[in-house]
Amino acid sequence: MTSWDLNNKNILVTGGTKGIGKATVVSCLSLGAKVLFTARNEVEVNALEQELKATYTHVKGIAADVSDPTDREKIKHWITDQWEVLHALVNNAGINIRKATLAYTEEEYQKVLAINLLAPFELSTLLYPCLEKAEQASIINVASVAGSLDVRTGSPYGMSKAGLIQQSRNLAVEWASAGIRVNTVSPWFTTTPLTQNLLANDEKKSNIIARTPLQRVAEAEEVAAVITFLAMDKASYVTGQNWIVDGGLTANAL
Ligand SMILES: NC(=O)c1ccc[n+]([C@@H]2O[C@H](COP(=O)([O-])OP(=O)(O)OC[C@H]3O[C@@H](n4cnc5c(N)ncnc54)[C@H](OP(=O)(O)O)[C@@H]3O)[C@@H](O)[C@H]2O)c1
Hints:
The protein is α/β, with parallel strands linked by helices. The protein is built from 9 helices and 9 strands. The chain has helices spanning 19-30, 42-53, 69-82, 106-126, 128-134, 155-175, 196-199, 202-210, 220-231, and strands at residues 10-14, 34-39, 59-63, 88-91, 137-142, 180-187, 190-191, 218-219, 242-245. Helix 1 (19-30) links the parallel strand 1 (10-14) and strand 2 (34-39). The radius of gyration is 17 Å and the shape is globular.
C-alpha cells in the first residue's frame, strides 16, 4: 500500500524561490520529502534555504539558470553526489515576455522557448539515469492553459507551453517501461509575482474572473497541491496527462 506522503523521496523543483515553485517546495517538504530547489537569483535562493532550514532538515537551494548547460550540469552533479537517485523532477521555472507577435525580437522569443520548453527537455534527459534508478519516478512539467488556448499571453509563451504538454506525452510513453511517469500541470491565472502586474489591473482581473466559473484566480498552493499529488506513489497509474487547474475555465463555453 502506498501512503499519502513523500517520505524518503528526493525531489528537484526548478524555479523554487517564488510563486507556484515555492509553494511546491513547501508542500513537498511538509509531506516528508528531501527537496533541492533552484532559481537564478542567488541572494533569494540562499535566503529561502535559510528560512526553510528553520523548519525542515533536508532542503537545499542552488543558484542555477535552467537554460544554461553549465548550470544544468551543476544541478546534476549535486544530485548524483548527494542523492544518486531522483524520485521527482518538477520542471516549473518559466518566464513570459508579453507582446504582439510582430513585435518580438529573435532573442526574446528564443529566450522564452529556451527556458519554458527546451530546458525541461534537457533536464529530463540529463537526469534520466537518476530517475531510472528510483524505479518509481515522476516528472511534472508546469505548462499553462495558454498551451491549449489563446489567452493573450503572446504567441511564444503559448507555443512553449503547447510544446511542453506534448513533450510530456511523448516522454510518458517512451519512459513508462523505465518506471518514469510524466505529466503536465496547466494552471490558469494564479496569484504569483509573474502575474502581479497584470492582476493589479482591475479591468483585466475582472475579465479573467468573469470567465472563470469559480469566480476567482488560483492561489499558488492550489496548483502546488496537484503537482505534489503527481509526485506521490499514490499517482502510480497516472501518466501522459495534462492536469488543467483552471477553476472551470476550459469547461465554460459561454
Ligand atoms: N502564475 C500564473 O498565473 C501561471 C499560469 C499558468 C502557468 N504558469 C507557469 O507556472 C510556472 C511558475 O510560474 P509562477 O507564476 O510561479 O512564476 P514566478 O512567480 O515568476 O516564479 C518563477 C520562478 O522561476 C524562477 N526562474 C525563472 N526563470 C528561471 C530560469 N531560467 N532558471 C531557473 N529559474 C528560473 C524564478 O526565480 P529567478 O527569477 O531568480 O530565476 C522564480 O523562482 C511557470 O512555468 C509559469 O509559466 C503560471
